[in-house]
Structures are given as structure tokens and as C-alpha cells.
Amino acid sequence: MGFYLRKSLRVGPLRFNLSKSGVGVSAGVRGLRLGSGPRGNYVHMGRYGVYYRATLPSGSPRTHQPAATPFSSEPTPFEPAADRESLTEIESGEVTAMRDSSSAALLDELNSKRKKKRLLPGLGIAGALFLALMVGTNSPAWLTGAVLLVAIAAVVFAYFYDQMSKTAVLLYEIESESQKDYQFLHDAFDQLRSCCGAWHIEAQGDTKDRKRHAGATSLVRKSAISLSKNPPKFVKTNVEVPAIPAGRQVLHFFPDRLLVFEPNGVGAVNYNDLLVERQQTRFIEEGQVPGDARVVDRTWRYVNKKGGPDRRFKDNRELPITLYEDIHLRSHTGLNELIQFSKLGVGEAFESAIHKLRRQVEKH
Length: 364
What we know:
By secondary structure, this protein is of the alpha+beta class.
């Protein structure tokens, strides 16, 4: 199934339209819309099969808008039940350092919009408190009703204001060759999503007590994640965006670059700077083994020097050793995230897809 490529987007009362001529924007209600686009300003009105459209005079000469740019056998790890070992965190640097000259304007817009305060929470709380005060003081019904209407109007205004002030719009018109490469990324991403298990590796390190860690030579701390195809909050775009959560950051794979979102800001990694490394990992699984994982060996929760079960522990049980696939995403600007999947081989297509997008970036 191909990813969607919409030609229009709604942000509050505005609708952005993408055509071969460029990007246009319109606003209005059913039956009446005012708009501006590559061919000038216009008014469109009518309903029930009768419509009228007229071009409005523009105060400045039209300029051509480019349509193809965005609007704006290895050591066996083990997960300890209690973190008594010293592990090294695996985390990316500050997103503010993840930028290049081609992403500067976009990042400035995204970060400035994220810093703007929202009106809706404050106005909503203030309106509710004011209404509660009027009801508590037995104010006249007509006055309470009037205040209620004003409060509703203020909340609606605040909602649309927040949408307009904090939302960034990214419209893409993708050429056929680039569209095939981006579709290849979506197909590879669907393979990753089909895995029964996916985890973000948060920290890793060598163990000092192999006996109590099933004979593992290294330890990891990880958390289960769910991959999705959702755009970032307060970003409207006309394409589906693969997203991988990685701790405090979320990695969004757009057609032209990787955008890294976290609560304090947004960073960008150009595909020609994105490094993808894959490797197989032998993992001692204490929990349930995913259905698509390959079990290659077994060990004991507590082992003796010869690798057999340590008889001093009554609750000593046998554990499976599985083969998982790790995908390490890095960049020279500070990206450093390690993602683990339960099915072997799923990272090969993903790595190839990033290489294809890298060639497109270098070509253009």
C-alpha cells in the first residue's frame, strides 16, 4: 500500500492547497471562501450546484513559487532485574546542535512556534472559574447565559489562535523517482512495525557478576516502544511520516530529512549525514520470547563457573538465548540512538532505504 500524498491541509480556519503552480491558502465557511495562490487572489461562493468565482486584484506583481520544496558470536547482553551495575547511557546530544544550513530556516520556524504559549488552557480555566463564581453568587440567569456565550466564544477563539500560531505547515510535492524511494522507506518501516518486539536501548555496560546475570558478559537497560506513522504535534503535512520513539526524543523520517523532536526543541539530520549500522545480538530473555524471535541456545538464571546451574539457588530456572537485530542511528551532529527488534533481517531494507534517500539528497 502506498503512503498518502494529500493535496490540501486544514489548519484552523485556513486550508492550504498544493498544485503544480505552487501553494495556495484560503479561508471561509461553506458557500464562501477567500483565497490567495500562485495565480492571484480570488473569491469563491455558491451552493447547491450554483457557484461563482472571481479573481481579485493584487497589490503586488505575482512571483513564481517553487512547488517542490517544503513550506516552510558476540557478548550476550542481559537485562538486569535490578540496576546494581554501572551502565553507560546511550543518548543523543542536544537537538539544538542537530542542524545544517539547509535546515536552518525550517528549524527556526519550528522552534519559535513551539515556544509560543497556548491561550486555550488559561482561558478555559478562567472561564470555568468565572461561571462557577456567578452560579455561586446566584447571579441573574440572563447574565449567566451571556457570560457562558462569551466564554464559549473565547474558548473557540483561543483554540483557533493556538492552532494558527503554533502549527507549522510542511507541504511536499514529490517527484516520481523520489516518491519511489520514499515509498521504499515506508515499506521497510512496515517491516520494522511488523516485529513482535521492538525496544529502545537506553544504557549498556559490562557486568561484574556473571554468576547472577545468567552468564552474560554485558548488561542493557531497555524499554518497549511502538512505531507509528504520525506527524509531530503542531505540524501539519500532506505525507505520512514514519516515527520511532527513542526516550525523550522522537525520530520523524520526512521525505527530505530526519527531524528529531523533544520537549525542549527540534533538530534536523540530513540523510547524507545519517549513519545506519546493523548487528545481530545474542540476548538472554527473562520475559516472554516474541513469536518471531529465533532461540539459539539456553542458559540458567544463576550459573556456576562451568556454565551449569548454580545449585545454591532454589528458584534457578532455565532461560532462552535469542538472536535480535540492533539498528544504531548516528550522525556527526549528535544523534545516537540504538533500537532493537525481535526479528532478524528487518533492518536490511531500512538501511537500504536510507541510502536511497541519501542519494536523492545528494542529487538535488
